Amino acid sequence: MSTLTSAQTPVAAAPNLCKTLFATCVGNALEWFDIAVYGFFATYIAHAFFPTQDPAVSMLLTFGSFGVSFLIRPLGAIVLGDYADRVGRKKALMLSITLMMVGGCMIVVMPSYGTIGLVAPVLILLARLIQGFSAGGEFGSSTAFLVEHFPHRRAFIASWQFATQGASTLLASAFGLGLTHWLSETQIQEWGWRIPFAFGLLIGPVGLYIRRHVHEPASFIAQEKSHSPLRLLAGKQKSLLLLAMGLMVISTGINYMLNYVPTYATKSLHLSGTAAFSATLLAGVILTVVTPLMGLWAEKIGRRPLMWTSLGLLILTIYPAFLLVVNHPTSGMLLLLVGWMALLKSIYFSTVPSMMADLFPVNTRASGMAISYNVAVTIFGGFAPLICTLLIASTGSSLAPSYYLMALALVSGWSLFKSQFRLQH
Fold first, then answer.
1. Would you write out the chain's pLDDT as a tens digit for each of its 425 residues?
2. Could you write out the three-class secondary structure of the chain?
């Protein structure tokens, strides 16, 4: 076995757990913070950039732009994932967080429709497309970076990817709750909704600085690089892409349902904005705290028992839970529904990143994870608010979101069953 040269020594040095976690998860946190804020303040964004005579049409346009931005995520996954597998995880991570900051800055400073007319919604859509492209490569590169640095702790270390999503939801909910409490409706509409987006911009430079001072994983350096990771995926690893995608669909579906809660609670259940943001705040706490604990537990009992338990409980209880809150639309019932969804998501979600990482070899891992993750997020997550809005509008039933989640749980169950033959633990 060859020895390390002096130039290689810093790269091969034992990584610092906390520094590596922060460097990789900060981009994920920024991505999901902006997504959550956009979903939480959708009614204000609709009024500012997509005004129409019909409020329902304004909401559909707003969620449409939310969903359309996800269409570019697979392209970002392909470009940035391929870049990460060929050139390096670190460079891909630095590029993705830079693009996130550009998109976020555009949303913060964009004049409203009343000031610049049709240019405003067009540029807002462009900002969301830039963010979507950058987010496309974030998950694959950052998760590969984590599990390759700490392969012996992969279940726990990778669970932090989704714990940071919970922390972002928690922070976004806190902004929503605080703004609805301290500002009037008019103040929030005129300028208050921009505050959380401006705060998100503060995260980016810190993350960029930290990422500049981390090193590539030793296993990636030692691995012979493929000149065309995408060709390998399209040729011999198509089934792996489908399995990884299937594992993700219920998780991403629940995640975006939680982002949809403020709109669902105020429009369909006619509850106050304070009640809605309180529920999402609870979800953020549960996702942040429970997810890494489940990652630790998975190291002791295995990942699949936790995943099967979560899927089974979801299929059996999600319809009765929605029925209860629809028949008794109170703040307490909404808290129970959202808390239960967040708990089931935490149990299942904690194990998904490491499961997906294990499906792919090192030379296609970032590309494979990025593509499968983002296709699942685009189809089953990004358009979830729009799909649920359309389902409720067309059926007249506020129970429509429960049917959607049960269908996704069955898809993920099938993928989990198939993937257990690919993985040894």
1. 334 443 443 444 567 788 888 888 888 888 778 877 887 787 788 878 877 766 766 777 776 776 677 788 899 999 999 999 999 999 999 999 999 899 889 988 999 888 888 888 888 888 888 988 998 888 899 999 999 999 888 889 999 987 887 788 778 878 888 888 898 888 988 888 899 989 888 888 888 888 888 888 888 888 777 778 899 998 889 999 999 999 999 988 888 777 677 777 777 788 887 787 788 788 888 988 999 999 999 999 999 999 999 999 999 999 999 898 888 888 888 889 889 999 999 999 899 999 999 999 998 999 999 999 988 988 887 777 778 778 878 887 878 888 889 999 999 999 999 998 777 54
2. CCCCCCCCHHHHCCCCHHHHHHHHHHHHHHHHHHHHHHHHCHHHHHHHHCCCCCHHHHHHHHHHHHHHHHHCHHHHHHHHHHHHHHCCHHHHHHHHHHHHHHHHHHHHHCCCHHHHCCHHHHHHHHHHHHHHHHHHHHHHHHHHHHHHHCHHHHHHHHHHHHHHHHHHHHHHHHHHHHHHHHCCHHHHHHHHCHHHHHHHHHHHHHHHHHHHCCCCCHHHHHCCCCCCHHHHHHHHCHHHHHHHHHHHHHHHHHHHHHHHHHHHHHHCCCCCHHHHHHHHHHHHHHHHHHHHHHHHHHHHHCHHHHHHHHHHHHHHHHHHHHHHHHHCCCHHHHHHHHHHHHHHHHHHHCCHHHHHHHHCCHHHHHHHHHHHHHHHHHHHHHCHHHHHHHHHHHHCCCCHHHHHHHHHHHHHHHHHHHHCCCCCC
